């Protein structure tokens, strides 16, 4: 039987991983701790570790895993910016889940957009307090607006298809544009200047770090709506706060935040929030924050568990896996 230490377990992870693990003869040890230098010892004696977006897989953790005989790191997510892949290469195999229903994330981006522009978040609170006033609730139509989509991979394309259904004009930027597609690509400058709404769907890399910053915010259309369901550090939070304060940015929908790792996914109610920038964002009436929940649907959870268990079995039983990011060889 294959033994996997499963870090940063949440209650919604367990049922699907137990189900697919049983079918694949994998025994998961569900641990609440995140993987980092202090917790790497918990992986001793396991064939592999299964980790998520806010586990830390830096060089020290990789050395710690290798020295404890761990053979693989199975990411149960698509993004891998939390893993030092270049350091892992040649030392340990890293696999991920490249796709698990891109509709799940695209639909969440749209849900946040509609909530913001039709003020649903305010209406929900007002009507519960028997306040049926409409003052300050005027929204705007999506039909006819220009949406700029940064990253036209699986999620970006699903998002574009939904936007087209709303009658929006789509402009897109991708470092590697799709060939033979009907998507209207343009340069990033043009997208920033022309879009009423901008949605990020590219990975976090050294190229994309703080893509939205003090300089690029100056070039945006006044009142633009920013949606980020990709990775927090695509946006410089200080510049974002300034952009909201100066009214250059009209509304913000964030499912991710650059300093989310110690805050998101946890119940911090009853505690003083130590993160001043996040606190300021949460106090702004035109900012909506969800805590990295865009992936959280029944369909995606089941698909993530299935692909992850397939990845583990392929690598540990057959010695190779099609979803390898780097391998030990
Ligand atoms: P994908 O790999 O299918 O597409 C990414 C696209 O970004 C590709 O077309 C690629 O060419 C493009 N790209 C790469 N470098 C770029 C650059 N410098 N500038 C512009 N575009 C660039 O990935 P997918 O599945 O569409 O996911 C996109 C991102 O969504 C992931 O990287 C991940 O960070 C995020 N994500 C967030 C989730 C959440 O729960 N909030 C869940 C799943 C993914």
Outline the secondary-structure elements.
Elements: E1 2-6, H1 11-24, E2 26-30, E3 48-51, H2 59-67, E4 72-75, H3 85-88, E5 93-95, H4 102-117, H5 120-128, E6 146-150, H6 154-165, E7 169-173, H7 188-194, E8 197-200, H8 214-218, E9 224-228, H9 237-245, E10 249-254, H10 276-283, E11 287-289, H11 298-318, E12 324-326
Helix pairs in contact: 1-11, 4-6
Bound molecules: 1,4-dihydronicotinamide adenine dinucleotide.
Q: Which structural class matches the secondary elements?
A: alpha/beta
What is the chain-wise order of helices and strands? EHEEHEHEHHEHEHEHEHEHEHE
Radius of gyration: 21 Å
- Any low-confidence stretches, pLDDT <50, length ≥5? none
The multimeric state of the shown protein is single chain
Proportion in β-strands: 15-25%
The main sheet orders its strands as: 2-1-3-4-5-12
Biggest sheet character? 6 strands, mixed
Fold and architecture overview:
This protein is of the alpha/beta class and 329 residues long. Helices cover 35% and strands 16% of the residues. The chain has 2 domains: 2-100 and 297-326, Rossmann fold, CATH 3.40.50; 102-289, NAD(P)-binding Rossmann-like Domain (Rossmann fold). The chain has helices at 11-24, 59-67, 85-88, 102-117, 120-128, 154-165, 188-194, 214-218, 237-245, 276-283, 298-318; strands at residues 2-6, 26-30, 48-51, 72-75, 93-95, 146-150, 169-173, 197-200, 224-228, 249-254, 287-289, 324-326. The protein has a 6-stranded mixed β-sheet. A 6-stranded parallel β-sheet has the order 7-6-8-9-10-11, with helices on both faces. Helix 2 links the parallel strand 3 and strand 4 (72-75). Helix 1 (11-24) crosses helix 11 (298-318) and helix 4 packs across helix 6 (154-165). The protein is globular and about 60 Å long. The two termini are 24 Å apart. The mean pLDDT is 96. The structure holds 1,4-dihydronicotinamide adenine dinucleotide.
């Amino acid at each position: 039987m294959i033994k996997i230490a499963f870090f940063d377990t949440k209650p919604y992870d367990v049922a699907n991983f137990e189900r697919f693990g049983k079918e694949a003869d994998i025994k998961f040890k569900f641990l609440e701790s995140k993987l980092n230098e202090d917790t790497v010892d918990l992986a001793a004696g396991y064939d592999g570790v299964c980790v998520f977006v806010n586990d830390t897989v830096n060089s020290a953790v990789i050395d710690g895993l290798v020295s404890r005989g761990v053979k693989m790191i199975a990411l149960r997510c698509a993004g891998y910016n939390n893993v030092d892949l270049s350091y892992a290469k040649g030392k340990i195999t890293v696999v991920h889940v490249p796709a698990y229903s891109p509709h799940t994330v695209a639909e969440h981006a749209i849900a946040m957009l509609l909530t913001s522009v039709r003020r649903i978040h305010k209406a929900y609170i007002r009507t519960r307090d028997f306040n049926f006033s409409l003052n300050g609730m005027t929204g705007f139509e999506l039909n006819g607006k220009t949406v700029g989509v940064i990253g036209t991979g699986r999620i970006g394309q699903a998002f574009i298809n939904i936007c087209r259904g709303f009658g929006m004009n789509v402009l897109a930027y991708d470092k590697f544009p799709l060939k033979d597609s009907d998507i209207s690509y343009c340069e990033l400058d043009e997208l920033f200047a022309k879009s009423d709404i901008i949605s990020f769907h590219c990975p976090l890399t050294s190229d994309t770090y703080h893509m939205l910053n003090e300089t690029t915010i100056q070039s945006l259309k006044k009142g633009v709506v920013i949606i980020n369901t990709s990775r927090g550090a695509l946006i410089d939070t200080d510049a974002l706060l300034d952009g909201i304060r100066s009214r250059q940015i009209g509304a913000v929908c964030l499912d991710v935040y650059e300093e989310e790792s110690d805050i998101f996914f946890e119940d911090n109610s009853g505690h003083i929030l130590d993160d001043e920038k996040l606190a300021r964002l949460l106090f702004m009436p035109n900012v909506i924050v969800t805590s990295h929940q865009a992936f959280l649907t029944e369909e995606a959870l089941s698909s993530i568990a299935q692909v992850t268990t397939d990845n583990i079995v392929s690598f540990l039983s057959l010695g190779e896996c099609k979803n390898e990011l780097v391998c030990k060889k």
